[in-house]
Amino acid sequence: RDLDAFLLPYGYGDGGGGPSRDHIEYARRQKNLEGSVKVKFSEPVEFFEDMQEKGGPKNTYVGELYFTAHRGTYTSQAMVKKNNRKSEIAMRELELWSALAALGKANYPKTDIEELWKEVLLYQFHDILPGTCIAKVYEEVEEGYERLLKKADSLQKAAQEKLLSFENNENVVTVFNSLGFERKAIVSLPDAYKNGVVLAEGRYLPVAVDAQGVKTLLTLPSCGSVSLRPATSKVVKNGPDGATIVKTENGFTMENAFIRAVVNNRGEVMSFVLKESGREFAAGSMNGFHIYKDVPRVFDAWDIDSHYIEQEVDGIFDVTVEEIEQGMEAVLKVTGKISESTYVQYIRLSADSRRLEFETEVDWKELHRLLKVAFPVNVYAENAINEMQFGYVERPAHRSRLYDKDRFEVCNHRYSAFCDGAHGAAVLNDSKYGISMNDNRLELTLLRAAASPVMRADNGVHHFTYAFTAWEGSFADCDVVRQAYELNVQPVVMQGGCLDMSFLQIEQTNVMLDTIKLAEDGSGDVIVRLYEAKKAAVTANIYVDLPNMKAYSCDMLENVIEELTVVNGTIE
What we know:
Elements: H1 21-29, H2 44-53, H3 78-103, H4 110-123, H5 135-163, E1 173-177, E2 183-189, E3 197-199, E4 204-205, E5 208-210, E6 213-220, E7 224-230, E8 244-247, E9 251-255, E10 259-264, E11 269-274, E12 279-280, E13 288-293, E14 312-313, E15 316-325, E16 329-338, E17 341-350, E18 355-364, E19 369-376, E20 383-388, E21 391-396, H6 402-406, E22 410-411, E23 415-419, E24 423-429, E25 434-438, E26 441-447, E27 460-472, H7 480-488, E28 492-495, E29 501-502, E30 504-506, E31 511-518, E32 526-532, E33 542-544, E34 551-554, E35 560-564, E36 566-567, E37 570-571
Antiparallel strand pairs: 1-7, 1-28, 2-6, 3-4, 3-7, 5-6, 7-29, 8-9, 9-10, 10-11, 11-12, 13-14, 13-19, 15-16, 16-17, 17-18, 18-27, 19-26, 20-21, 20-23, 22-25, 23-24, 24-27, 25-26, 30-33, 31-32, 33-37, 34-35, 36-37
């Protein structure tokens, strides 16, 4: 309606095949052919300029243009989904630490970074990233990801080594945090730290020692590092253990200073209480696996059809739960079977955490099956929040209208949440992109098992972690974005020492650091890319630890827009 021009890409197929001689001849003949639409060769800029001269569009649309098909592409070929997430994170780490090292006159590997980014983008091509290529493609892509991640890690470590400034020996280590906010994390340390940790200012930290090694709970500065030395005598922890497990008749109670969770003998979370309010967030069995028949009418690897929900099958059995450890973190080990497959899951609660993590390994042996994990919560929300790039999109949490029912499977990045004005809950993930929301249930899609174009696609061993968290207060004030970053980005421990540092600090909690890199023009200028994560326009102060610096706002092509005022290292 009201459409008198249309921009039409043309050629063979949807895989990049260009126009043939026939296509070009057809377009030439329809340049001014009586009885048909007029056709001319053009380009997008010219098309939009022509439309603007005619007054612009008569009708506009605000909101998501949801595509009502190919919902399986968020999940098919889990290997690619995980490696895509890992590659994006690896490139972020590589650019950031390489840029900081370059400020100290180290070489910035610009050529290597560009080549690696091009490979990451190649693997984001359809049909690679959607999981709809033939088997040979995924054999090559898996090998390519392995090389890519290995090279990115090597270059990143080389940059971090340039930042180390003293005592390069096995008994001194530095822990790096790339995130743009202070965080607490459990880090693994060499055996020399079995007595405890000494920080640069002389403060002591206790450690936990088990079969996996030595670890400590460490506070890490925003976009910075801390150096550690081993204690010469045993550091005794004062006060009670941070995370505890109590065996009960029907399961286990996991608890720390912030939350109390009850896990039954099937590994399901029957209760999740925030201690600050006493509020119960579980509205049923959370962390409950559900397996469905998944036989799309067409486009096997591409589609999930809506009738899957009517075809749930019994398939979760032989489940056992046992306590592994408590103290610095509480850990339960869950083993069981899912239909023909087996799984092992570690449910983790860190001493200083507000999230329950589910580290999972599945030996997947299914055909035409769909695996989801459900989190029914005591939060009423008309819309769910799904993270997208640099923010989030809201989608219906109820299926009242046909348009709502169509969106029975949607995509998310690192988190999805339900919230009202007073409290909320979220499911986080480290490599899963498909999710469904209905009433008060968040159901993360874990695995599929298509038969075409790859027979028994995804059969094999898969490793992934998801988590659950809840909060009191509004979404604008919650820390779910930070928690999702923490789940995905781990601190790096390097042998050797340096002066403790924090390169960048952000005043506003809803403003996130996405990227630090050197400018593409070779000037040596540092590009800092920030975004606002919660649809809340704010003014933020950014502190950067650089002497005598000048700062400019720029566009995404790194063209200068205007100079900014810098006062004592702080940019508004």
